[in-house]
Amino acid sequence: MKERYQQRKETIERLFGTAKEYHNLRYTRLKGKSNMKATLGLTLACLNMKKYSKWMAKMAFLFCQKVIKFLSKLEIEGKRKDKHILRPVCLQSFFAPLKRKIPETR
Question: Which residues form the Transposase DDE domain (predicted)?
């Protein structure tokens, strides 16, 4: 039972603690259950998106690591012919030149 509560404390109650501390849910400032329900729903949706974005960044990092490991393995075995062409790049550095600068309007 203690292990189960420990796991719950790390996952579920941490989410509500973050919402209370950083998203002003310690006290209600709205009238009505429906208004508070909508606010809580939006806050929890934002926290889920934050968790998802961290997870996606971790997955992209792991993907880059696997590509680097695979390419270095090919170099060690001598099977890779085009050593100067295929270099592993981070996804952000690959797409950085493709971003266009938006002109400022005054």
Answer: 2-52
pLDDT of residue 67: 78
Q: Measured between alpha carbons, how far apart are the two ends of the chain, in Å?
A: 63
Does any domain span residue 106?
no
Look at the chain and report how many structural domains it folds into.
1
Tell me whether residue 105 is in a domain. Answer: no
For 49-76, letters b (16+ CB in 10 Å) and e give eeeeeeeeeeeeeeeeeeeeeeeeeeee
Tokens found for residue 83: 């050593």
Q: Which two tokens stand for residue 76?
A: 């060690």
Question: Is the pTM value of this prediction over 0.85?
Answer: no
Q: Is residue 87 part of a domain?
A: yes
Distance (Å, whole) CA 12 – CA 8: 5
Sign, CA dihedral 85-86-89-94, equals: positive
Domain that holds residue 90: 2-98
